[in-house]
Amino acid sequence: MEERRYRSASGAPIALRCRQHSASCRELAVRCPRLQLRSLSAVTSAVWLAAYGLFVLSENSMVLSAAIFITLIGLIIYLHFVKIDQESLLVIGSLGIQVTSSYASGKESTTFIEMSQVKDVVINEAIYMQKVIYYLCILLQDPGDPQAVSEVVPLFQSSMPRLDCLIEVYKSCQEILEHRKTVPQSS
């Protein structure tokens, strides 16, 4: 298992961990930076200072209770539904591709795509906030027309790695896809 350091499109440090289980099975995981105590403290302090200011003006203690309640509920929602710590891609040449997102609360979201549906894995580009960003995506084959693409599934949407990291993941995926084409499939 090897781990390399990269940067995201926003400049935040990320890490790519590659683990090769066999010639046709590889796991690629992008770890995002953990939740910083400094930013959490700043947001909490800002909410509580605003609540204290409202308390002084209104002399109602419910304002302080509401601020504490809103801060705690907001933190739970952020950790459980928004903050992703790791996004991983498990490519198994004979079965398919599993995409997993691990949230800061410990919750995981997993999607599996059968290899028979995968047409290709490509690096695409998009214009985002006045700059060009690159992203990796899986092209799904249209069941009615084998030459057409029915859907595009973007990968690593939370970590948004830069092009150098995406090229490493792309090469690994292409090696397995090529290995799958050269090895005869058993019925």
Automatic annotation (TrEMBL):
Pfam families from the UniProt entry: PIG-H
Limits of the Phosphatidylinositol N-acetylglucosaminyltransferase subunit H conserved domain: 88-157
GO BP term, example: GPI anchor biosynthetic process
GO MF annotation, one: transferase activity
Keywords: Membrane, Transferase, Transmembrane, Transmembrane helix
Presence of the UniProt keyword Methyltransferase in the record: no
Lineage top rank: taxon: Eukaryota
Gene Ontology CC, one term: glycosylphosphatidylinositol-N-acetylglucosaminyltransferase (GPI-GnT) complex
InterPro entries cross-referenced by the UniProt entry: PIG-H (IPR044215), PIGH-H_dom (IPR019328)
Listed pathway(s): Glycolipid biosynthesis; glycosylphosphatidylinositol-anchor biosynthesis
Transmembrane domains' residue ranges: 40-57, 63-82
Family affiliation: Belongs to the PIGH family.
UniProt-listed PANTHER family: PHOSPHATIDYLINOSITOL N-ACETYLGLUCOSAMINYLTRANSFERASE SUBUNIT H (PTHR15231)
Name by which UniProt lists this protein: PIGH acetylglucosaminyltransferase
Organism: Syrrhaptes paradoxus
Gene transcribed to yield this protein: Pigh
